[in-house]
Amino acid sequence: MQTDTPDRIAPRRAGNIRENIFLFAPNLIGYTRVILAVVSLYFMPVHPRRCSAIYAISCILDALDGWAARRLDQGTRFGAVLDMVTDRCTTTCLLVFLATAMPRWAMLFQLLISLDLASHYMHMYATLSMGGSGQSHKKVDPERSWLLHLYYSNKAVLFTLCLMNELFFIALYLLAFTDQDTPLASTQMRMITQNAPWSAGAMEIARANKIDSSIPEVLMWLSVLPMSIKQYINIQQLVIASQWLAEGDVAERASRQ
C-alpha cells in the first residue's frame, strides 16, 4: 500500500547519476506480488491449499511495500499505481474463478468486480482532474467523507479492511473444495491433472477431491463484516467521486457563461 507523496516523487540526482524508479525496493516488492499472483492462478483450479497460501503471501506483501516506501523514502506515483492495479487485478481474477466455481452467485461476483474497478477508477480520475497532478488519491477531504478519510489516512484501518476483504474471498474459494476426499476422486485427479491440468474436467475432479476442514467457513464468517464495510466504502467512493466530477463540470459551465 504505497503512498505517493509528491515531494518524494521527483527523481533525485547524485552527480550525474539519475535514480531508476523501476528498481526501487517497494516496486521490486510490487513485481514479486504480481509474480506470486500469477503463480497462484496457475494452481487455482486444482490445488486450493497451494493457491491460497501463495495468494495470501502476495496480499501480505501489500503492506510490506508501503512500509519499505516510507522507510527508504521511495514513495512514487508509479509504485502507488502499480500497487492499486495489482490489487484490482488479483481480486478480479479470484472473483472470476468464484463466478465459475459458484455459478449460482456469478452475477453477484460480476457486480463486485464492476464496483471495485469503477469506484477506484472514478476516484483516481476525480483526484487527478479535480485535485491536480500532485494530489494523492489517498488524501481525502474529511468534509467529503469522514469514512473515506479514515480509510485512506489510517494505515491500520486500510490494511485490516483490505486483508479481511481478501480473506473472505479466499475462504469462499476454499469452500468450493470443502468436503471428504474419496479414493476414486484422488485417482481421477492424478490422471486428469497430469494430462490436462487446465481443463474443465480437471476443475470438476478438483472439486470432488475436496478439503475436509471447517476452517474456511469460520474464516468466511469472521471476515464477512469487514468485507461488507469494504464494499460500502467502494460504493461511497464511487458516489463521492461522481459528485466531485459533477461539481467541476458545473463550475466549468458557469465560467463559460
UniProtKB/TrEMBL annotation:
It catalyses: a CDP-1,2-diacyl-sn-glycerol + myo-inositol = a 1,2-diacyl-sn-glycero-3-phospho-(1D-myo-inositol) + CMP + H(+). Keywords: Lipid biosynthesis, Lipid metabolism, Magnesium, Membrane, Metal-binding, Phospholipid biosynthesis, Phospholipid metabolism, Transferase, Transmembrane, Transmembrane helix. It is a multi-pass membrane protein. The chain crosses the membrane at residues 21-46, 52-69, 89-113, 156-176. It is found in: Membrane. One of its GO terms (molecular function) is metal ion binding. One of its GO terms (cellular component) is Golgi apparatus. One of its GO terms (biological process) is phosphatidylinositol biosynthetic process. InterPro entries: CDP-OH_P_trans, CDP-OH_PTrfase_TM_dom, CDP_ALCOHOL_P_TRANSF_CS, CDP_diag_ino_3_P_euk. Its EC number is 2.7.8.11. It is an enzyme of class 2 (transferase). Its cofactor is Mn(2+); Mg(2+). It comes from the Eukaryota. Pfam families: CDP-OH_P_transf. Belongs to the CDP-alcohol phosphatidyltransferase class-I family. This is CDP-diacylglycerol--inositol 3-phosphatidyltransferase.
